[in-house]
Recover the amino acids of this structure.
């Protein structure tokens, strides 16, 4: 499994309140959530993001509340992967549960710049910045996590195994 897209770069401590502001939590519709994704940190994100694009951030991405709305908004906006130095643990689990691939790789998070084109190989964990030619070794997804992501989330994965 691979992803490739243009990078949107953010810093440390991007919390769930800026990923999807609380004022929009009255909706659970992924398209509605996507329409407001990242708007409190990057007003142009929803106008510029394209299917397959990638978010790269520094430390503690997804901190704050444990709402599943945050990874749902990111995935529904078309983001194919999030790479960060570190993730908040609940955000990490929620992302896998809804089928949003995320990778921790401090070296990649520090080196990759906004607007770079990046390819991620989920089988090997290799992250390639196609703009600079640099490659980084991230943590590969174990096979069961790849199956959850391919199924578009834990519920679909479980239902498909019945």
């Amino acid at each position: 499994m691979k992803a490739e897209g243009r990078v949107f770069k953010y810093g440390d401590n991007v919390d769930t309140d800026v990923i999807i502001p609380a004022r929009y939590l009255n909706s659970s519709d992924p398209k509605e959530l996507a329409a407001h994704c990242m708007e409190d940190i990057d007003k142009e994100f929803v106008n510029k993001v394209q299917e397959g694009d990638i978010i790269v951030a520094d430390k503690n991405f997804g901190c704050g509340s444990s709402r599943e709305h945050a990874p749902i908004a990111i995935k529904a906006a078309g983001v194919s992967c999030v790479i960060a130095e570190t993730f908040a643990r609940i955000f990490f689990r929620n992302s896998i549960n809804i089928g949003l691939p995320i990778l921790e790789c401090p070296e990649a998070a520090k080196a990759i710049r906004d607007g770079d084109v990046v390819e991620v190989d989920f089988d090997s964990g290799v992250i390639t910045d196609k703009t600079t030619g640099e490659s980084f070794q991230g943590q590969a997804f174990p096979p069961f996590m790849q199956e959850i992501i391919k199924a578009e989330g834990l519920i679909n994965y479980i239902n498909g195994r019945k």
In short: The beta strands are 2-9, 54-57, 81-84, 102-104, 117-121, 126-129, 135-137. The radius of gyration is 15 Å. The longest helix spans residues 89-98. Helices lie at 16-19, 30-34, 45-48, 69-76, 89-98, 106-111, 143-150, 154-160.
